[in-house]
Amino acid sequence: MTSPIRVLLVDDHTLFRSGVRALLARQAEIDVVGEAENGPEGVKLAASLNPDVVLLDLNMPGLSGVETLQLLLQDAPQRAVVMLTVSEDADDLARALRAGARGYLLKNINADFLVNAIRRAADGESVMSEAMTAKLMAQFRQGGASPAPAVSEADKLTPREREILVFIARGDSNKEIARTLDLAESTVKIHVQNILKKLSLSSRVQAAVFAVEHGLADSRP
After folding, report:
1. What are the Cα distances from residue 9, in Å, to 45, 51, 119, 167, 194?
2. How far is CA 175 from CA 49, 171, 204, 208, 210, in A?
3. Sheet with 80-85, side-by-side order of all strands
4. Are 166 and 221 in contact (CB under 8 A)?
5. Angle in degrees, 0-180, between the axes of helices 185-198 and 174-181, rounded to the nearest 10
6. What is the pLDDT of residues 23-72, one digit of tens each?
7. Which residues pair with 103 in a beta bridge?
8. Distance (Å, rounded) from C-alpha 158 to C-alpha 55?
9. Vertex 164, ends 162 and 167: CA angle to 5°?
10. Residue 75 burial class via C-beta count within 10 angstroms: exposed 0-12, middle 13-18, buried 19 and up
11. Is the torsion defined by CA of 134, 136, 138, 139 positive or negative?
């Protein structure tokens, strides 16, 4: 039997945490192992509980969500930290993704979307509310592409890896990429790991950001 996905909730609103805990308690494959009402407490609990996924509020008093995110990833760079927030601000989205968040979810998503997002994040995939995808693309295009660095960095990738990077930027899961390219899902997963390693990135979201910033997201696969 597969072990449950261990989830830590970090949010300063007690009622919201209680609601999310109650929702996730109905999922046999998810186990909420702890709750924290602020950033420092969340960092401390993450160190002792070693959760698979941290659901982290963006705007908290004291230590902000992005500052907390950076501390959470210091000791565990591969930890899946997903922002769960009311903020639809493109700058907040960009800061969180650049800091290493594996995803960015709005608190108005439905229960099924949240549960599926937790599963995907635990499996190493990026997750994002649909409403934020267009804002992600627009935000990183505003600064313009950086063709010179892009050429040298992208040249590290094989043609297949560049192809898969385009799908990652579009938010496709490993399963969706595998189906489109007629590959085994395990093969796609290996390609994704190679992409992250070659580009010195820690998450699929950062890979998507790289692709958008360097004009690769619009390439035809």
Report:
1. 10, 10, 15, 30, 31
2. 30, 12, 14, 17, 22
3. 30-36, 5-10, 53-56, 80-85, 103-106, 127-128
4. yes
5. 110
6. 999 999 999 999 999 999 999 999 999 999 999 999 999 999 999 999 99
7. 82, 127
8. 34
9. 120
10. exposed
11. positive
Closest CA to 54 of 1, 11, 25: 11
pTM: 0.73
The mean predicted confidence, pLDDT, of the chain is 86
Rounded CA gap, 210 and 93, in Å? 15
Give long-range contacts, CB 8 A cutoff, 24+ apart: 30-34.
30/4, 30/5, 30/115, 30/118, 31/4, 31/5, 31/6, 31/7, 32/7, 32/8, 33/6, 33/7, 33/8, 34/8, 34/9
Rounded Cα distance between 202 and 209, Å, is 12
What is the C-alpha separation between 95 and 112, in angstroms, rounded?
26
Q: Which residue type does 170 have?
A: R
